[in-house]
Amino acid sequence: MPRVFNFSAGPAMMPESVLRRAAGEIADYGGTGMSVMEMSHRSKEYVALFEGVERKLRAAMSVPENYKILFLQGGATLQFSAVPMNLLARKGKADYAVTGFFAKKAYRCGQMYGTVRAAVDTGDYYAVPEQEALDLDPDASYLHFCHNNTVYGTRWPYLPETGGVPLVCDMSSSILSEPVDVSKFGVIYAGAQKNMGPAGLTVVIARGDLLDVPPLPGTPDLLSYKAQAENGSMMNTPATYGVYLLGLVLDWLAEQGGVAAMEADNRRKAALVYEAVDQSPVFACKAEPRSRSRMNAVFSSGSDETDGRFIKEAAARGMVTLKAHRATGGVRASMYNAMPLEGAERLAELIRAFNS
Ligand SMILES: *Cc1c(COP(=O)(O)O)cnc(C)c1O
After folding, report:
1. Mean of the per-residue pLDDT values for the chain?
2. DSSP-based three-state secondary structure for 158
3. Does some domain include residue 9?
4. Going by CA atoms, what residue is nearest to atom 13 of ligand 1?
5. Last residue of a domain, one of 227, 255, 283
6. Is the pLDDT of residue 1 over 90?
7. CB-ligand 1 contact for 10 (6 Å cutoff)
8. Is 295 found in the same domain as 227?
C-alpha cells in the first residue's frame, strides 16, 4: 500500500524519511545492539540522546537560556491542570481567552483550582477576537490562550498584549509550524502528536523565574514544573522513544530550512485549499479570513450527505481522515509540517472538481 495523504488532526502524519530512519535503527541504535525502546533512560547513550533533543528543540525555536524545556507525559490535557497548579499562586487569579474547543476545556479545568475568569468568550469560535475585545486583569497570574484552535480552524493572527502578565499558550497544533518569539511567553506547552512526533510526549517551555513560586498545595511532584526542571524531566521514566522520534523530526526540520521554511510551506498549502474552497460553488469556510488556521482548514457544503460523499471520494484518491470534529461537522483538512505540498494540491484539485 503506498503512503496516503493523511489529513488527521492528530495523531498526524510524520515525515516519511523520519519513519524510514527510525525503522532502519529500530533494533540497533548507534551500534549499541539494542533499540532505543529497550534502553535505560539513565544510560550514557540515552542521556546523551535526550540532552541532544533538548538542544535541537532550543535551537529550532530559538528558546532563550532562561527558559526550561521539559519533556513530560499526559498530553496537553494534563497541562490544563498543571498550568494553574504551578502558576495560579503567583497572584491568586488568572484570565483565559475562550476561543475554541480546547481553550474552553482549559478554562473549565482552570476553574477547579481557583479564581479563573474568561477574558473573552467569542461564543461561535469562528473568529479570534481583536485585542480591544479582551477584558484583561492587569493583576492576573497569567493569560491563557490557545494559539491555533484545532477544532474550529482558527489561529491568533497576533499575540495578545497583556502589559506584563505572562502569556501561557497551548501551542499543541501549531508549535514548530512558524517562527515564534519565545521571549514573549511565560509558558508554551504542546502535545507532540500534531507537529512534533508520536502521542505520549508533552513539551513544556517555561520561563525560569515563574518556577520560583511554589505550586498549589497537593500538586504531585510529577506535575511540578520546578521539580521536573530540577530533575531534568527524569523524576521517573520519560517517554523515551517519543523523545527520540522528536529528535529525528527536528533533524528533518533543520534539513528543510527550519521553522521559517515551514511557515512558507504551510502558508502555501493552506492558501491552495482555502482558495479552492472560496471559489467552490459547493463548499464554504466559516472561519473569518483573518483568523484562518494554516494547520486545520475546516469547511462544509452545509449538507452532511454531500460532505460525506466528498470525504469518500477523497479517500478513494488516497486522501484520508478528512471528517471534521463533531463540534463543527463538515470537512477538516489538517496540514501540519509533514503534509507534503502534493497533498494540498491534490485536495484543492478535488475541491475544484467536486460538484454537489
Ligand atoms: C489536540 C489538542 C489538545 C489535546 O491534546 P492531548 O495531547 O490529547 O491532551 C489540546 N489542545 C490543542 C490545541 C490540541 O490541538
Report:
1. 97
2. coil
3. no
4. 172
5. 255
6. no
7. yes
8. no
User: By C-alpha distance, which of 264, 318, 321 is closest to 296?
Assistant: 321
Mind listing the pLDDT tens digit for each residue in 224-257?
999 999 999 999 999 999 999 999 999 999 999 9
Question: Tell me: the pLDDT tens digits for 18-76?
Answer: 999 999 999 999 999 999 999 999 999 999 999 999 999 999 999 999 999 999 999 99
SS3 category, 6: strand
Q: Is residue 288 domain-shared with residue 220, that is, in the same domain? A: no
The helices-and-strands tally (H runs, E runs) of the chain is 9, 13
From 77, 81, 104, 144, the mutation candidate for ligand 1 (largest count of ligand atoms within 8 A of CB) is 77
Q: How many domains does the chain have?
A: 2
Q: In this structure, are residues 204 and 80 in contact, taking their beta carbons and an 8 Å threshold? A: no
**pLDDT at 189 > cutoff 80:** yes
What pLDDT is recorded for position 122? 86
* 198 CB near ligand 1 (under 6 Å): no
Residues 135, 261, single domain; the answer is no
Domain, as residue range, for 189: 17-255
**Residues 314, 168 share a domain:** no
CA neighbor of 246 nearest in space, from 147, 176, 180, 189: 176
| 295 alpha carbon – ligand 1 mean position (Å) | 14
Strands 202-207 and 67-72: antiparallel
Q: Which residues contact 271 (CB under 8 A, 6 or more apart)?
A: none
Q: Looking at the structure, do residues 276 and 301 belong to the same domain, yes or no?
A: yes
- pTM (whole model) above 0.85: yes
Q: Are both 249 and 310 inside the same structural domain?
A: no
Q: What is the pLDDT of residue 356?
A: 65
The count of C-alpha atoms lying within 13 angstroms of the C-alpha of 35, restricted to the half-sphere facing its C-beta, is 12
Task: Please tell me the distance between residue 95's alpha carbon and the centre of ligand 1 in angstroms.
Answer: 20
Any idea what the CATH number is for the domain that residue 332 is in?
3.90.1150.10
Residue 263 and residue 250 share a domain: no
Q: Which residues pair with 187 in a beta bridge?
A: 168, 206
- Report the pLDDT value the prediction gives residue 355, as an integer from 0 to 100: 81
Question: Residues 6 or more apart from 231 whose CB is under 8 A from it?
Answer: none
From 211, 236, 255, the end of a domain falls on 255
Q: What is the pLDDT at residue 353?
A: 97
